[in-house]
TrEMBL record:
Residues 1-22 form the signal peptide. Its EC number is 3.2.1.55. This is non-reducing end alpha-L-arabinofuranosidase. SMART domains: Alpha-L-AF_C (SM00813). Residues 459-647 form the Alpha-L-arabinofuranosidase C-terminal domain. It comes from the Bacteria.
Length: 655
């Protein structure tokens, strides 16, 4: 047999274990061919009070059941009666018309030992050394002289912070003191102890870190808001989610119950309290300390458009499916109109004045409002039509978000799209919680949508990994990588996909009901997931116009495991392109910059990569997968890059 030179070389290199690398693929970007405009607020945040995301999470209140309004009024509290102390603890009714109905009376019969109450917090309580914690409460002496209160933060028998409040009176007075922690500790308790013989009435016992977001009293957790701010989100959707609907209409979210003084906000069971039998949370309630004013305020802080969602008069159709008769829908419609006035109205209006009283006389410049969440059927359509007529008559500039139901396809989805399209709906909210494979296979989902029809709000999406076998589906790299692949399709179709947000946003590591979630936290700290870093890569590198990135004239949406999108940023005069390599091996590319490219030198390359699809973050390992920044060289209008397997890559270069 005669051997050719080529066969000899192949035999030689294979013998010594050297394999020839696959040839570089040519990808083309024509800078002159700018496409549709990308909404400046395209990438945003979805917030819902699930997984203890509000009370016990973003809302920095440390005391659970701070006003004794839970159905079991001492839930979260423990009676203290030690070392010979004698007395009783009662709850008694307020006689005014506020939503704060109960208060605590401590009746002490002697002056021996420790007598009072202890609070466990939300899945525990934690403090940081040398930091101040603001304690506020209402109190009045019902009987006795020379009564005082000692407030403590303790770890076992060790006192980490302590202060005494004297000069109590027989009238309800508001008190505020600081407790300074001597060390950092988790698993601490708060104690309020009554000193002296007599009876003391006490209520609204609240404890916050002084160091909240923007230093606001009764404010938000600084570390969690900072993670949100770092994403530069375009919008903030709130308050959900299924929590909007409630498991019945009485349990629906009513925004008017969440504004004003805390005594006027009341308390309500959280619908995730009993939703999942495997993750029951009987102590999960809503104090509404994080209410609609605070949501609007947070959106303003983040530079994000507020996007509130309101009940359309249909309770969750997976639960009771309770419906308000059409003839009785006026109250619900009026709530929507009043909310727009609360957000945007002048201080001469009733609800605009309410906003000003809370500290924000300026308009919140609301542009969007959502009608219903994951509702379906003709019952939704007929209610949505009533809302639309009323809102557009009063506020024609407001963009209405409609729902396409809880699924990404099927009979109900098709029915709603048909009906809403016939009514010229502006934005239709689509949700998909699917396998990573589904996300990779659906990167072309919006390629064939009607360009003249309604725009899409990808309002809730997350890849639920198939490699996780238990209820705690971790945020692993398989899910994040697949979401990145899918998101290139959202960006390529930004003329159809107006808004997009991952869901859910937050989860307490010891209090979650649903997983995966984008950001996890405990009482001391927090960590971002790989999914967070994927979302952040897109939200901080958006661009203003679509530019196609192609191979042989075709866009890339999974061909040979490669996904890509490209944009131009008119503000920074930069070309931004994203390439996701879902293969396990490295792939080489030559990026050819066609058109009027005049840039020189280097560009920036952000790489997010892991060889392990099961890799996930934790409190102890918060950054196993995080972006790495590199330089790229542009020579003769070409960029040569080798992209690692299972990587998300973002490139930026000046035009």
């Amino acid at each position: 047999m005669k051997l050719t030179l080529l066969s000899i070389l192949i035999l030689f290199f294979s013998t010594i274990g050297i394999q020839a690398q696959a040839p570089s693929k040519n990808l083309d970007i024509d800078i002159n061919k700018k496409g549709a405009t990308i909404a400046p607020d395209m990438w945003g945040l979805f917030f819902e009070d699930i997984n203890f995301a509000a009370d016990g999470g973003l809302y920095a209140e440390m005391i659970k059941n701070y006003s004794f309004e839970f159905p079991s009024p001492f839930m979260g509290w423990r009676r203290i009666q030690e070392d010979g102390a004698m007395g009783y603890h009662y709850t008694k009714p307020h006689l005014d018309d506020s939503k704060n109905k109960k208060y605590l009376q401590m009746q002490r019969l002697n002056d021996q030992g420790n007598f009072g109450m202890s609070n466990e917090g939300f899945r525990g309580m934690a403090v940081k050394g040398n930091e101040n914690y603001r304690l506020t409460f209402l109190a009045k002496v019902a009987k006795g002289d020379n009564l005082s209160i000692t407030a403590q933060i303790t770890k076992g028998k060790k006192i980490l912070a302590e202060t005494t409040i004297n000069q109590l009176t027989n009238e309800w007075i508001s008190y505020e003191v600081m407790l300074k922690a001597t060390e950092t500790a988790d698993g601490v308790n708060f104690k309020v102890l009554l000193e002296g013989e007599g009876e003391l009435d006490i209520d609204m016992i609240s404890l916050f870190p002084e160091d909240t977001w923007m230093g606001r009293k009764r404010g938000l957790r600084k570390d969690l808001v900072q993670l949100l701010a770092d994403m530069n989100p375009g919008f903030l959707r709130f308050p959900g989610g299924c929590i909007v609907e409630g498991f019945d209409l009485e349990n629906r979210y009513q925004w008017k119950n969440t504004i004003g003084e805390m005594k006027d906000r009341g308390t309500m069971i959280n619908r995730w309290n009993i939703e999942f039998s495997h993750r029951n949370a009987p102590d999960y309630f809503q104090s509404f300390g994080l209410g609609f004013f605070e949501y609007f305020q947070l959106a303003a802080d983040l530079g994000a458009e507020p996007l509130p969602i309101l009940s359309c008069g249909l309770a969750c159709q997976y639960n009771s499916g309770e419906m308000v008769p059409l003839a009785a829908l006026d109250e619900y419609v009026q709530d929507a109109l009043d909310l727009i006035e609360f957000a945007n109205g002048s201080t001469d209006t009733y609800w605009g004045a309410k906003r000003a009283e809370m500290g924000h006389p300026e308009s919140f410049e609301l542009k969007y409002i959502g009608v219903g969440n994951e509702n379906w059927g003709p019952q939704y359509i007929e209610r949505a039509e009533i809302f639309e007529k009323a809102i557009k008559a009063a506020y024609p500039e407001i963009i209405i978000v409609s729902t396409s139901g809880p699924s990404s396809d099927g009979h109900e989805f098709d029915y709603l799209w048909k009906e809403l399209k016939a009514r010229n709906a502006e934005l239709i909210d689509e949700h998909y919680y699917k396998s990573p494979e589904w996300f990779r296979e659906n990167a072309r989902r919006y390629d064939d949508y009607d360009r003249n029809g309604p725009k899409v709000f990808a309002g809730e999406y997350a890849a639920h990994s198939t490699t996780e076998n238990d209820a705690l589906k971790r945020n692993n790299w398989e899910g994040a990588l697949s979401e990145a692949a899918f998101m290139t399709g959202l960006e390529r179709n930004a003329d159809i996909v107006r808004l997009a947000s991952y869901a859910p946003l937050l989860a307490h590591v010891d209090g979650w009901q649903w997983a995966p979630d984008m950001i996890w936290f405990d009482n001391l700290g927090s960590y971002a997931t790989p999914n967070y870093y994927v979302q952040k890569l897109f939200s901080t590198n958006p661009g203003t116009q679509i530019i196609q990135i192609t191979e042989n004239g075709n866009t890339l949406a999974g061909e040979e495991g490669i996904y890509a999108s490209s944009t131009y940023d008119e503000n920074t005069k930069e070309l931004i392109f994203k390439i996701v390599n879902t293969n396990t091996d490295t792939r080489a590319f030559t990026i050819r910059l066609n058109g009027n490219y005049k840039g020189k030198g280097n560009g920036k390359w952000l790489e997010l990569q892991s060889d392990d699809l099961t890799a996930a973050h934790s409190i102890k390992e918060p950054k196993r997968i995080a972006p790495e920044e590199k330089d790229i060289s542009i020579q003769k209008k070409k960029i040569q890059v080798s992209l690692k397997g299972q990587s998300v890559n973002v490139f930026r270069l000046k035009i």
